[in-house]
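Schema walkthrough. Field components (list of strings):
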Amino acid sequence: MIFEWIRFALCAVCLITAMICFTAAVLGANRFGFIMNRVHAGGVGDTLGLFLVALSIILGDGFHMGELKLCFIIIFMWFTSPVSSHVLIQVEYFTNPHLYEHVRREDREALTEEDQ
Amino acid sequence: MNLREWKNRFFRWLDGDYDVMANIMEGSLEPDESHEKVKNDRKAAHKELTSSGFSQAVIDAERKGFYRIYIGVAIVSCIVLIGVLLYTVSLLPKYGQENPRAVEVSDRYIERGLEETGAVNVVAGMILDYRAFDTLGESHVLFAALLCVMILLKKDKKNMDSRFDDYYQIERDAYFDVSKDSVMRKVGMLIVPCILVFGIYILLNGQNGPGGGFSGGAVMGAGLIIFESAFGFELVDSFFTAKVSMLISFISLTFYCFAKGYVFFMGANHLHNHIPKGIPGAILSGGLILPLNIAVGLVVACTMFGFYSLFKRGSIGGV
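Field assembly_structure (string):
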């Protein structure tokens, strides 16, 4: 009985954390001004949020064939989502001429002329 | 702000001089400097065209004759179409009222679908057996769409404007090319075979479970697109050229036409067709559904990759 309750609590904690992650992702992707911040926020939802949802499902339902498929989805998403973020950021890095306006001032001063 | 200002702004927006999102979106494009020049060029060309008396006469005559007929035909056809559609709507059953004919058909599909088509998946039996001509039309629409995109976007020396010289430069320098990126390459090496195998699995499993030609072909096309973005067009060109794409589409669609035409011809004349149904649930079952799924899937994969390739560089498989 007590084991069931512990399992339920863990499951609920995972799900609530995942909800927080997804809320952060949605808010960040819509409200941030600069693309790198947006991609970062979206990446949080795609990796950590998805992982926590799957973890809570596995905790709540036990490990069966369906959960194995879920694990494959997690592996796939963890491979692809960071790479897509990386490629997006790379395109932004190579094509945005005003990129250094988004760097903090004290960091910008530390950069050499050649970097800019 | 009064009405005239709004109107002025709206027409400036239509002309492309004014960006509504300029102060809202970050990183929005600067107003195009060459826009004014293009506009002037167009005006000059128009002036030159209309300055000679002969061409002006031709244009006037065309306007007089052609546009009157055109407008007349357009109005008449619109009215006829509206009338036909309204008449059809009046024949439909009322909302919530049971339609006995539709129920009859769907009951037949659900009750005798497995027995008649040999497919466990009723939907596959429906779209590739009972209503196979519908799916044939859809595949042809995809193929026609690819051809249309090719007509519009295919890049060769005849339709290249001098304005696109810069584009060639960019292409040569591989300016936007991320294919040399090692992260993308390694992950592509791992992911692409899995995606292609998964696509083939969906394709071959269409008669037994969810899946089929359209979804499997879409997954395979996506796998090809990821392969291209990881390794560049050079590798894809070695096996997927415009000729191969057209050949695959042509063979698939022709096979579909003849196979299904044979079955429908025999069925309509109450003859026995010689296509075995197999054991329901096995991979080789469902009669023609498996080969037709493969044909549709190949067409969809070719179309998806063709769209991507045409939009990205203006050709399929090398110029």
